[in-house]
Predict the structure.
Amino acid sequence: MLSRKKNINNALDLLTDSQRVLSFMQQCLTRNPWPELNQESQEGFDIIIEDVKEKLEKSQNAIKAETK
């Protein structure tokens, strides 16, 4: 039971971190729209987006596994 709760809390922490990153990216892109960013910035954002996707998938899988 304690392990299950810890796994869910860890997954929720990952979701919270992902939300913070996405909020930051939204603020950045509001100031500098995608087409106006240089190639290095676009590649950096792509890396961040992939990292967030992985965290979201990991969180979703952990929550699904613990709620079955």
User: Anything to note?
Assistant: The CA atoms of residues 4 and 65 lie 9 Å apart. Residues 2-31 form the longest helix (30 residues).
